[in-house]
Amino acid sequence: MEKEQQRRAKDHLVALIQAGHTWQEAAARAGVPISRSAAYRLVHKVRTVGVSTWQDGRHGHPAKLREPVQQWLKAYCQAAPGTPSHIVQQALENRCGVLVSISHLNATRAALGLGSRATPLREKNRRRTQAANHSG
User: What letter would DSSP give residue 53?
Assistant: First the structure.
């Protein structure tokens, strides 16, 4: 089955389940081999995300930090480069309605060259070591 046929079959499956058919009936009528949990997960995803479920082209979780959000993140972090990630996380949720984990946010900031530390940790440790060696 080609991608467009699969998309239409899944659309049909979701429509049948939403119309009150059991997942087994819907899967048989739509011709989609799918488990119960996957069928209901698909219905839930269509209800919460909408038609863009099919347009994403990805498997698994939708990408949270798309281009418009990345642009905002870049501007925010360039304006205040030393802002801790938990503050950026809160601002991102308030401004864009997107909640991402601190680790994903840190990885994204690093990929964009927007680290949370104004001075890299290695540099701070080197300065401390030099200061300790000169003081004694």
Answer: H
Distance CA 61, CA 84 (A): 26
Q: What pTM, to 2 d.p., does this model score? A: 0.44
Q: Which residues contact 58 (CB under 8 A, 6 or more apart)?
A: none
pLDDT, tens digit only, all 136 positions of the chain: 687 888 889 889 999 999 999 999 999 999 999 999 999 998 988 887 776 665 555 555 556 777 888 889 899 988 988 889 899 999 988 988 888 888 888 888 888 888 765 445 555 556 666 666 666 5
Residue 116: count of CB within 10 angstroms of its CB: 19
Neighbouring CB atoms inside 10 A of 60's CB total: 6
Task: Give the C-alpha separation, 28 to 52, whole Å.
Answer: 25
Burial class (CB in 10 A: 0-12, 13-18, 19+), 98: middle
